[in-house]
Amino acid sequence: MTPLQKSISPQAWAALFLLACIWGASFLTIKLALAEIGPLTVVAHRTGWAMLILWAYIILRGLTVPRAPRIWGAFLVMGLLNNVIPFSLMAWGQQHIETGLTSILNAGTAVFGVIVAAMFLADERLTARKAIGVALGFCGVATAIGLESFRNFDIRSLGQIAVIAGTVSYALAGVWARKALSGLSPQVAAAGMVTGASLVSLPMAWFVEGPITLDLQPQTWAAIAYYAVVATAVAYLLYYRVLAMAGSGNLMLVTLLVAPVAITLGAVVLGEALPLRAYLGFGVLACGLLILDGRLGKTRQHRARGT
Description:
Largest sheet: none
Oligomer: single chain
């Protein structure tokens, strides 16, 4: 068991499943909101409402707020890399592909995270095990996309590329957080991040898609309330609770659990049907993530020792 992994208690498992369900349902609610508002407006609502809720939490808890301009500049960059860019790309891409496929491609974040970390962090070398996991991850993503997407390039292919580009931005955000935001309270870092994101997403949505109106259909407001309040503000707070309970190594399990939730909701609510290659691709990607996590190799070692 690596230092970042520890045994998972029943309470930690429950928290992991809850977080996976919350994030898995976010793909559906974003898809529902896109029926009435544009992708940039979706992001503006997501970061803006989450910002208000997180700062209310910080004020109630009496947490210390940093004042250094350098920290707030880091919050702005983090907001761009972890919110504005990936949220916008994935929301735009989700207009052209299924919610389930979006969640499968989103699971590739961990694969790109390993590569980016190896490039920029001295203590994150690309070992043989990680290289195998990354290779399987890429094969899984390519299988889920399908060869015809490379042969017949269309708007659907562009949507898938947009989602993958979003995962690369997530990976860069992970490295930036290590370098610029270490030592901060995670709740304050999350609030600062969505504040930096809101400073960009609100005017950008207004300029590109027009004034942000509050005169929306009830189902759109319900979707916004879910993905902004529950799947962003509350999920960030739950994420750090799960981190304390299960350890960072076990948090990769959330990535594997999110996609089945999103696929199921997309099929039940929206009637989406994914091709067989999407499921095969997710299976290969899941194996790659488990190898990156070290769980498959560890299981084999335990069996060998038992024998």
